[in-house]
Amino acid sequence: MFATFKKQIIENTMKSSTKTQKATASKAPTHVAYHVRDVNAEKSFWTRIGSAWQHGDGHGFNIQIETVPLDGRIVLRTVSEKKD
Description:
The protein is of the alpha+beta class. The protein has one domain (2-78). Helix content is 30%, strand content 36%. It is built from 1 helix and 4 strands; from the N terminus they run αββββ. A 4-stranded antiparallel β-sheet has the order 3-2-1-4, with no helix packed on it. A hairpin with a 5-residue loop joins strand 1 (31-38) and strand 2 (44-54). It starts with a helix and ends in a 6-residue tail after the last strand.
């Protein structure tokens, strides 16, 4: 009985993961993630580190980060027509 229950959980998790991957892979990201480090009061370094896709209901994001900064902050900005 436990083996059947475990199998159902794994299948449901895989289905959910596949749906999420298809949803995010089929659409362009709605936001870009940047690592921002402040050098001084007037200068900051912005490095693109990932992308984000807004949920269909508008109440959250799926975020794909390629690197995790050790300092500074992560900023999400809407995608613009301007090149990064």
